[in-house]
Design goal:
The chain has one domain (4-144): Toll/interleukin-1 receptor homology (TIR) domain (Rossmann fold, 3-Layer(aba) Sandwich). The protein is 44% helix and 17% strand. The chain is built from six helices and seven strands; from the N terminus they run βαβααβαβαβαββ. The strands form two sheets. The chain has a five-stranded parallel β-sheet, sandwiched between helices.
């Protein structure tokens, strides 16, 4: 469903720390967007649109590593805005790693966050656990939808056709109509 299980957004001063988190997540088998490893993909005159796609549509979880410089960069703020937007339907799709304490902007405070003074393996464990939870929920929802679809396909309804050719029935939505000769 998603190209990336997690997209990591950070300012360059946090790169080594974030790389450790990315390495732990990959060791768990997750597909991770970590920009330095996608240089060829990111070298483009359309960088903003690529970032838009990654943080809005292509990643299940977004992890923002927020420092003071993070809040000053136009690229990281684009990533943050798209991450916030895509997490509106499910706030658990956004994790904020707070390196600036009380200075964290109010729009980010409402999302689950972990302090930046935690170890990279602890942060990776939290992210990995959240990915597992969301994938399990998605799998259960997909199974429920498939069951509903199969039941709807197998549902029968009684219909009658009058002389003018109109079909009347007890089901407002007819996906498949099988007409048997009732004579």
């Amino acid at each position: 469903m998603y190209k990336y299980d997690a997209a990591l957004s950070y300012e360059s001063e946090s790169q080594e720390f974030v790389k450790e988190v990315a390495d732990y997540l990959r060791a768990e088998g997750w597909e991770v967007f970590f920009a330095p490893e996608r240089k060829e993909e990111m070298l483009s005159e359309h960088l903003n649109s690529k970032l838009y796609q990654i943080y809005q549509k292509e990643s299940l979880i977004k992890v923002l590593f927020v420092t003071e410089k993070y809040l000053e960069s136009s690229y990281t703020m684009l990533e943050a805005r798209r991450s916030l937007s895509s997490a509106r339907e499910n706030a658990r799709r956004l994790i904020v790693v707070n390196f600036i304490g009380e200075k964290l902007p109010k729009e980010l405070k409402s999302f689950v966050y972990i302090e930046g003074d935690n170890f990279s393996d602890e942060i990776a464990f939290l992210v990995s656990s959240r990915i597992n939870e969301l994938k399990a929920e998605n799998s259960a929802a997909e199974k429920k939808e498939e069951k509903r679809r199969v039941e709807a396909e197998n549902q029968t309804c009684n219909v009658a056709i009058n002389n003018s050719g109109y079909i009347f029935g007890d089901n407002a939505k007819l996906d498949h109509v099988h007409i048997n000769n009732l004579r």
